[in-house]
Amino acid sequence: MSTPPDPPVSALPDLNDAESRVPSVLRTAAAYAWRLIAVGIVVRVAFSLLGQFHRVAVAVFLGLVITAVLRPAAGLLARFMPRPLAVATALIGGIVLVLGALALVGETVADQRTGLEKEFVAGIDRIERRLEEPPFRLPADAFDDLQSRIGKLLSDHRSTLISTALSGASRLVEVLTVLALALFCAVFFTHSGEKQWQWLCDQLPERARQRVAVGAGAAWRTFTGYTHGILLVAATNAVLVGIALFALGVPLAVPLALLEFMAAFIPLIGSPIALAVAAVVALASKGPLIALVVVALIVVIGQIEGHLLHPIVMSWAVRLHPVVVALAVVGGAVAAGVIGAVVAVPLVAVVWSVYQALRGPVGEPA
Question: Given Cys at both, which of 118, 222, 286, 316 links 353, Cβ 3.0 to 4.6 Å?
């Protein structure tokens, strides 16, 4: 059987001509699109792996935070004593400081418990009376019915509440395990972090060691700068809130100031949430006028944090636009809850600093 003759060259489609008909903007967009898809797949796989070992990842992150905080103190103490003893002294001092703050909070709550119960009961009665008056005009038995419904709901779901409490106990064990692992990592990171990093770099190809060292140096400088800066911002916010609440006579001023300190680790949204809790306490104990003053504190503290503390304290370590910070916080919260909201901003800042350090030839300023 004879094969059919090949078609003439003029009958074949001209691929170069077909490609030339595609607009250059579309070709560029397609080139970026498949690269973005590839990067997205890699990021998705990385986060999936971290999700499988999220407790270990959180422990290592906390270990790095503790290292960034304790390393300067350990380095200062190492001038007067052996390095292992300096690390142990700094670590024990930090633990005593944290436990002392928690003990102070517990003692404050215990001392004010009786007075708080009376103030809260009186405050709730005042709120009920105001809601019964114009313009709300709620019926007098509305809150009695609400209390009975809450009691019935608790009794009907007693087994669910017990199982939730038991699961909370298991979560407490997990939290303590993560904290123990974080302290274990922090001890070795603080004592001999350079040797561990040098060993890791020695396992890499020789041509990649310099770029990895430059990127890692930029990442650690940004991470430590962010950690020190956010600690200073959180401490300043806590002092301002504590002084204001104490001056207004709001109960639990010390615990609420500590809550403000912890909430400040979530940029932009942490402080308003903590002050909203303080406003609820002020409303129940001191009435709506003091509560409105506490609400005004949300605006004041936000302005101080956004226009004074962050530009002065954080700008040298974290050069991110506020929109990027907001998107990172919200995205981290959606992806991993509170932990994601806390980790998102330093993670984005570290990635950006590494990119800035490696965008040009290694050894030259970016």
Answer: 222
One-letter identity of residue 40: G
Q: Which of 40, 64, 79, 85 is nearest to 226 (CA)?
A: 64
- Spatial neighbors of 335 by CB under 8 A, at least 6 apart, are 47
d(CA 308, CA 325): 16
Helix (H/G/I), strand (E/B), else coil: 5:
coil
Distance from C-alpha of 278 to C-alpha of 107, rounded to nearest angstrom:
19
Other beta carbons less than 10 A from residue 250's beta carbon? 22
Compute the half-sphere exposure of residue 51: CA atoms within 13 Å on the CB side of its CA.
10
Upstream peptide bond of 135 is cis (omega within 30 degrees of 0): yes
The contacts found for 348-354 with CB under 8 angstroms, 24 or more apart, are 348/320, 348/324, 349/222, 349/223, 349/226, 349/317, 349/318, 349/319, 349/320, 350/219, 350/222, 350/223, 352/319, 352/320, 353/218, 353/219, 353/221, 353/222, 354/215, 354/218, 354/219
CA 33-36-42 angle, 5° bins? 145
State how far the Cα of 312 lies from the Cα of 164, in Å rounded to an integer. 44
235-276 residue pLDDT tens: 988 898 889 888 888 888 888 888 889 888 887 788 888 888
Kindly compute the dihedral angle of the four CA atoms of residues 57, 59, 65, 66, in this order, to the nearest 10 degrees.
Answer: -160
Q: Minimum mean pLDDT among 23-32, 320-329, 345-354: which range?
A: 320-329
pTM: 0.74
162-214 residue pLDDT tens? 666 556 667 778 888 889 999 999 999 998 888 888 888 888 888 888 888 88
pLDDT score, position 154:
57
CB 301 within 8 A of CB 271: yes
